[in-house]
């Protein structure tokens, strides 16, 4: 006789669970919206003036696109990396742990495109939804993020001028270069 009661309790909890995790689908959509737009802008710039011209576009447009998407969606959006180029892209402790886990999982054979982390965390006594999605190095990105010995002198000079503390080189295509990180207070 208790079975119907237990089944009813489980099914009653399903909508609540679905509602509690619906934010993850929204986070995936938001985190996935900026990179394709940036890649399109970079491809256009590379076609016009070569990869060295795209460096400033990436430096200026990526944060502007993230800011516009943040304002549109209500999520705070940015890029982070364990080997950051931009000093503003240094991960916090939660992001660092997730990126290190992504690297371990990728080394074990998981596809970088599928790596993500979603979690509700407590920050300063408030609940915050956090989502991180791996950014694998695209072939287009190799011009400025690949091995330095394969970069043009113009790219090397531009990187040194704009990012004297640059650590964002030496990647291979498909390797995790960083992540889109988004957060929203509940």
Notes on the protein architecture:
The chain has 186 residues and is α+β, with helices and mostly antiparallel strands. The chain has one domain: Beta-Lactamase (2-Layer Sandwich). The protein contains 5 helices and 4 strands. Strands 1-4-3-2 form a 4-stranded antiparallel β-sheet, sandwiched between helices. Strand 2 (116-123) and strand 3 form a beta hairpin. The termini are far apart. 28% of the residues are buried.
Give the topology, please.
Blueprint: H1 2-49, H2 51-73, E1 76-80, H3 93-107, E2 116-123, E3 126-136, H4 142-145, H5 153-162, E4 176-185
Antiparallel strand pairs: 1-4, 2-3, 3-4
Helix pairs in contact: 1-2, 2-5
Please supply descriptive tags for the structure shown above:
Beta-Lactamase, 5 helices, disordered N terminus, 186 residues, 4-stranded antiparallel sheet
- The radius of gyration over CA amounts to 20 Å
The SS-based structural class is alpha+beta
Helix content: 40-55%
Number of domains: 1
Q: Main β-sheet: number of strands, strand sense, barrel status?
A: 4 strands, antiparallel
Q: What is the general shape?
A: globular
Distinct helical segment count: 5
**Could you tell me the number of beta strands?**
4
How is the largest sheet built, in terms of strand order? Answer: 1-4-3-2
CATH class: Alpha Beta
Supply the CATH architecture: 2-Layer Sandwich
Give a brief description:
The chain has a single domain, classed as Beta-Lactamase (2-Layer Sandwich), CATH 3.30.450. 54% of the residues lie in helices and 18% in strands.
């Amino acid at each position: 006789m208790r079975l119907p009661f237990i089944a009813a309790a489980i099914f009653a909890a399903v909508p609540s669970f679905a509602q509690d995790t619906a934010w993850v689908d929204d986070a995936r959509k938001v985190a996935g919206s900026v990179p394709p737009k940036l890649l399109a802008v970079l491809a256009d710039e590379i076609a016009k003036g070569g990869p060295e011209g795209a460096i400033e576009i990436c430096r200026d447009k990526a944060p502007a696109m993230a800011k516009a998407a943040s304002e549109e969606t209500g999520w705070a959006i940015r890029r982070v990396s364990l080997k950051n180029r931009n000093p503003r892209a240094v991960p916090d402790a939660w992001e660092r742990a997730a990126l290190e886990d992504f690297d371990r999982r990728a080394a074990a054979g998981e596809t970088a495109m599928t790596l993500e982390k979603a979690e509700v965390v407590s920050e300063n006594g408030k609940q915050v939804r956090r989502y991180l999605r791996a950014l694998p190095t695209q072939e287009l990105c190799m011009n400025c993020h690949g091995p330095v010995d394969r970069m043009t002198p113009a790219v090397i000079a531009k990187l040194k001028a704009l990012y004297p503390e640059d650590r964002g080189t030496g990647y291979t295509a498909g390797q995790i270069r960083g992540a889109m990180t988004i957060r929203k207070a509940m």
